[in-house]
Amino acid sequence: MFVAPKLAGNQALRVLLKLGRFHVNISADNDGAEEITLFRLRDSAPPTDTSRCFDEMVDDATSKARYRFTIQQLRILAIKLQLPHDGIITSAGDRVGRVEALAMVCRRLSEASKLLTVASEFGRSTAAYSRIVSATHKDILYFHEFLIKTRIEDYCTTIHAAGSPIQSCWGFIDGTKQYISRPSAREKSNIPNENLQRSVFNGHPRRHCFNWQSIQAPDGIIVS
Questions:
Q1: How far apart are CA 143 and CA 158, in angstroms?
Q2: Which pTM was predicted?
Q3: Phi/psi of residue 193, nearest 5 degrees
Q4: DSSP per-residue codes, 7-33
């Protein structure tokens, strides 16, 4: 059974005009038992709740629950990540301050939620929210794009010179335990009798450490 692709309203109109130009006659069968569906129009976008917006005066507890950071921490993080001082501007012309843009990214990554749910919290459409998050995420990942590309080329050259037949290898999977200092208890914790030492203690080396499969570059830098 043929299933027509979803079309926007203007796309469907263009197809109808072309059909009319070539005088194509489309009808059901003689018995009328079968209906021919030409188009499956896209569902209309849900309305945007413009009454809600990003609130920089929100208390620290609520901010941490939403974004994993306080508003002050988001301001510092936006500076450290070198996000544009005049804010994020998408290709569609969406403009948003860098603190709000970073909050939108953190909110999107904090939990698995529908796009409509998180977009409504900032008073934006799902399309605008998606564009802003993508643009901000790109700025975070590639704010040192030239340096990263140069380093990767050096890594590939070094590994190939050491005897590797592959010229595009720039790192290796490494599961070495990364030892850390013994963590102390947090001053303000909502968890009674919180034991941070237990959460990072490894019984094999009997030390506190982080243990995951990372990608390590030839110079020892942990990339991920």
A1: 25
A2: 0.52
A3: 55, 45
A4: E-HHHHHHHHHHHHHTT------TTS-
Cα dihedral 102, 103, 104, 110, rounded to 10, equals 110
Q: Contacts by 146-154 with C-beta closer than 8 Å and gap 24+?
A: 151/217
Whether 182 contacts 208, CB under 8 Å: yes
* pLDDT tens track for 4-62: 666 676 777 777 666 655 444 444 444 444 444 555 566 777 888 888 899 999 999 99
| CB-side neighbour CA atoms (13 Å) of 164 | 14
As a whole number of angstroms, the distance between CA 218 and CA 157 comes to: 10
Each as own residue / partner, the long-range contacts of residues 89-93 (CB below 8 Å, 24 or more positions apart, any chain) are: 89/135, 90/128, 90/131, 90/132, 90/134, 90/135, 91/131, 91/135, 92/128, 92/131
